[in-house]
C-alpha cells in the first residue's frame, strides 16, 4: 500500500483544497517538507485576512514585509481597527504611514479578485472612519478586483472638500461582478458613472429617479445594499443621504432607481439584487405594532418586498428576535442582519447567489438560520418569554406574520392580528390603597386575585369581575410609596375571548 508521500500532486492538491477553511492546519502541512510547501502555499494564501494597527506588529505589517506570496492571494479581508482610526482622527504620522502601507500591499496583489474592506465598529463612543481613508484604499485596488464588500457602518459625515466615497465606489461599478455595500451615508454618486442624472432624494418627487440616458453599463451580477444600522449606532439608526442634514435614505427610492436602470439596460448581466431596510413601528396602547426589516429584491423580472418582524429581548440581554415563515429565531443584532442576506450572503469568493425562481407565485425572502438559535433552544438556555407567545398560546393560533408582496410599494410595519370575534379592550386606569397586605382582596373588588411585583415588570393578574372570561390581563406597576400603605396606579391591557350569548353579563 502506498503511503501519503507517494500520492501524485493532483490528489494532494485536492486534499489541501478540502482544508482551505482550516488555515492553522494548513500551516502545519506546508511546514512538513519542500514538496508540500510548494503545493500547499497556493491554497494557504488564496484567502488571507489582515488587521491594521497603529503601532507594533500587525498582520498587515508582517505581510507587507513578505513579497513572495502576494501574487498567490486571490481573496483579501482587510479590517481597519479602532486604534488605527483613532490615529487618523488626531492626524498621527504613524496612522498615515500605516494607511500608505496598506494601500501599497493591496496594490501589489496582481491576482487579487475579491476584497472585503471593513472598519471596526465602535463599542459605545468610538472613532468614525474618515472618507479620505476609505477612498484611499478603494483607489489602491488593482484592476483585477471584481468582487467588493464595503462595510463602513460609522463613517464621518461627507464634506465637500474631501474625496467622496460614493463616487469612489461608483467608479468601480462598471467592472464589478458582485457588490455588497453597507455605509452610514449614501447618495446618487454611487450611480453617477452609469446615469449622471440619477437621484435618490425622496424629497424631490417631481425629479425623475433615472433617465433613459445611460452613460455606461455594469458587469454586476449580484448586488446587496444594506441600509440597516444598529439601533444604538453613533451615526444614527438608518443610512443617511449625503449632504442632506441627516435625512435617512429611502430604500424604496433606491430599489426603484436600480430597477429602472436595469430595465434601461445599465445592468445587462444582473441576476439578483436586494436592498435591506428597516421600518420602526409607531407605539400603540396595546403595544401590538412591531418593527420590521424590509428586503426589496429583484430576481429575473420579478420584484418583491418581504417584511420580517423583529424586536430586542430587552433587559440586560443582547438577544434579538426575528420572525419568518419558519418560526422565531434569535441572535445578536449583527447575526440577525447577516442572516438577512440569505441567498446573497458574502463569501471569500464574493456573492455566489442563488436567485429564486419567480414564475407563478411570489417567493418570500429566505434568511440564513445557520448562525441563529431557535425558539426552543433560547427558552431552554435563557428562559426567554414574550407577551406575543402568551397571546398566541391563548388564541391557539399565530397572531404575527412575515409577509411578501409584489413590487416595492409595501412600506408598512407589522401588527398582531386578532382572530375573528377577539378584540383588544380599552386601557383601564384605576388607583387604590390599602393598609394591610393580608386584606388586599377586600380592598380591590375589581380583581379576583392580585399579585404584587417589582416596578415596571409585566405580569399576569386574574380576570376582573364584571367582564367576560379574559385570557390575558397585563398591568404596569407604576409607583409605590411607603411600606404599610402603598398606593398603585396601573393600566390593564386585555386580550378578550369572544363571549358566548349564554355568558353575557350586564
Automatic annotation (TrEMBL):
Q: Which PROSITE patterns match?
A: FBOX
Recorded superkingdom? Eukaryota
- Fetch the Pfam families from UniProt: F-box-like
Q: Which spans are transmembrane here?
A: none
Ranges of residues in domain F-box? 1-48
Q: What is this protein called?
A: F-box domain-containing protein
The organism is Lentithecium fluviatile CBS 122367
